[in-house]
Structure formats: C-alpha cells, structure tokens
Design goal:
Strand content: 15-25%
Oligomer: single chain
Order of helices and strands: HHHEEEHEHEHEEHHHEHHHEEEHE
Structural class: alpha/beta
Largest sheet: 8 strands, mixed
Distance between the termini: 66 Å
Shape: globular
Length: about 350
C-alpha cells in the first residue's frame, strides 16, 4: 500500500502543483475523469526505468512516466495509457515504451478501444536509441491495430518529436485548446535550422491543426470537457471490427415526418443553404457529432443515430464554397469512409455538389 501511495505521487507533490498551476490535470486525474467512477484498474504501477547514465540512477520514479490500465467508459471495456508530465517531462523511456505496448496489445487481444492521453516532451534523450526503439514498437502497433480496434489520442500538453508520430497515426485526435501542441520539432530547432521565428501556437497549436492541416479531429476548451467528448465519441463506435456499435433505443419515432424538409433546399440552384439544418432534421433528436469541423468545411463528416443505430454521415456543405469537392474535402471524406468501413458503421450520404 505504501508503494502504491508513492507511485500515485508520480514526480512528487511539487511537480503536481506545477502541473495544476499550468491549468493541467495530472495523469491519474485525467483517467478518473475519462473512466466510469471506480472502474479503473492500473497495471505495472511499480515499474521503474533501467537506465543509469547521465544522472538517471538517482531519478527513479515508481511507474515511470506513464500510467496504464483498463476500466469502463459508459459501462464498456476501454484500455488507456496516460503520460505523466510530472516524471521527467512525460518522456518515453524503454520501460514507458514497453508499458504502452503492453496495454495496446491487451486492447487488441480483448477487442476493445485504446485511448492515449498524451502529454510528453518526446523521447528520453538520456536513454538514446533504446528510447527511440520504444517509439518504433508503439508505431508498429498503431499500424497493425489500425482498423482492428478504435484508437483515440488526446493531446493534453506538448507533443513533440516521437510523441507526435504515434498520435498522428491513430483514428481520432482530440486537442485541448490553448494547451495541446503537436509538432515534429520545436520553434527553437526551426530557428536554428532555417532562421525563421515562429511561436509554439502557430507551429503546432490547436488552431493550426484544426483548420489548416486537418490533423486534429476535435478541438475542445478545457481538459474535463475534452474527456467528456471522448466519452461521447465512444458511444458511436463499436468495441472492435467484429462488433456492431451499441444500440440506444430512441424516443424519436422512426416514422415521423417533417414537412419543412420540402422547402429547405432552394429551387434556385444559385442560392445556398446550410446542410447541417438538414442533418439535424433527419437524425435522432437532432443530435450529431461532427468530425474535423474546422477543416475543409465544404465537406461535412459526422456521427449520428437513426432509430437508435450509429451511422456515419457524409455530406457536402453548400454554404461553404458551394460544396465543391477539392483535394482536402475529398481526403477528409475518404478517411472517414475508410474508418466507417473498417468498423461496420453504415453510411448516409447527402449529395449536393456542383
């Protein structure tokens, strides 16, 4: 019990206070928000890194820089790893890599989604190439399990270098506004290499990835709110590629009519309208969860329910660039369709494209 209490402190109370001062939760607090209350089971809380060079022998922390385990979200089994920024900046050591791979393997064997809460400075430089090998193993699993179990990444702090290659390969990326950052290499290295000055936010902030690169599927204010949206997304997804998405009996009758739909699409083809109004009227309770809302807005991709069943919606948006298809919109739709195809989610396509 004493060891567990020590492990729960991560990098120590002072580091935890610094994390809170930045407006961030700790690794375990994030898991507590994500999981159903009392359902989380931690694995390997006493593992420590093996490296002894460059002062690491004196810097040993129980559990190292990641918390792994499993629990329930809305009553369904989910596996999770949460990087602990209070321990050596959340950097990935050989042991951290092994822990993350272990929980990913368990997720695949049990056929359950894997959620990664990322808050890391990247590879642990002191460990050199063994740290990078850990990332190699993680990235291998990202590709092997793609289309087998849903993989969700939540960027809740800086994610630089190795810490950004792996999330970029997962199915959905959530970024916390103002806190999450993703870049291959930081502003200082870019300044040294090219002489160009660029801020952290312009280089890899949420706005850049949500609107320009399309890397982030969701950008949400506040960590707790973000984790609630992860819980919401999971209600639309099956556990694995052999399962169906959960059925939610709907109070919205399947045979209801909506006379206003007759007049929503204007007779004059030069006039625009908002396709989201149409979607709201045809799905259960007018509720849908849009994916990549800020990117390629001439295309809408979203999850919704019809008669209680999860469906993927692909629609052009006449209110933006007349709904024409360009490369970004096509890529956005293709990626969404590919995910739905892998996980048995039926598609509803609303077409209005010049």
């Amino acid at each position: 019990r004493r060891l567990r209490e020590q492990s729960a402190l991560g990098g120590g109370q002072e580091r935890i206070d610094q994390q809170h001062a930045r407006g961030k939760l700790t690794a375990r607090e994030r898991i507590a928000v994500l999981m159903d209350e009392g359902s989380f089971q931690e694995l390997d809380p006493f593992a420590t890194h093996r490296a002894t060079d460059l002062g690491l022998a004196q810097n040993q922390y129980l559990g190292d820089a990641v918390v792994i385990g499993y629990g329930r979200v809305n009553g369904r089994l989910i596996f999770v790893f949460s990087q602990d920024f209070t321990v050596l900046g959340g950097s990935v050591s050989e042991v951290v890599g092994e822990k993350i791979c272990k929980v990913m393997d368990l997720a695949a064997k049990n056929g359950a989604p894997i959620v990664g809460l990322n808050d890391s400075g990247g590879a642990r430089i002191q460990e050199g190439v063994t740290s990078l090998a850990g990332y190699g193993e993680i990235i291998l699993r990202n590709t092997l399990f793609s289309g087998v179990v849903p993989q969700i990444s939540v960027i809740m702090g800086p994610a630089a270098g190795g810490a950004v290659y792996s999330p970029a390969l997962t199915d959905f990326i959530f970024m916390v506004k103002g806190i999450g950052q993703m870049y291959i290499t930081g502003p200082d290295v870019i300044k040294a290499a090219t002489g160009e000055d660029i801020s952290h936010e312009d280089l890899g902030g949420w706005l850049t990835h949500f609107t320009k690169s399309g890397v982030a599927h969701f950008a949400i204010e506040g960590e707790e709110n973000c984790l609630q949206q992860v819980r919401r997304l999971l209600t639309f997804l099956p556990q694995n590629n052999g399962d169906d998405a959960p059925l939610f009996p709907s109070p919205d009758p399947a045979d209801r009519t909506d006379p206003e739909l007759r007049t929503m699409v204007p007779e004059d083809s030069a006039r625009s309208y908002d396709m989201k109004d149409v979607i709201r009227r045809i799905v259960d309770m007018g509720d849908f969860m849009e994916v990549q809302e800020g990117y390629a807005q001439n295309m809408i991709v979203a999850y919704a329910r019809m008669d209680g069943r999860a469906v993927g919606i692909v629609a052009q948006q006449p209110a933006h660039m007349a709904g024409v298809l360009d490369i970004e919109a096509s890529t956005k739709a293709a990626r969404f369709v590919r995910f739905c195809d892998a996980f048995n989610i039926p598609l509803v396509t609303l077409v209005d494209v010049p």
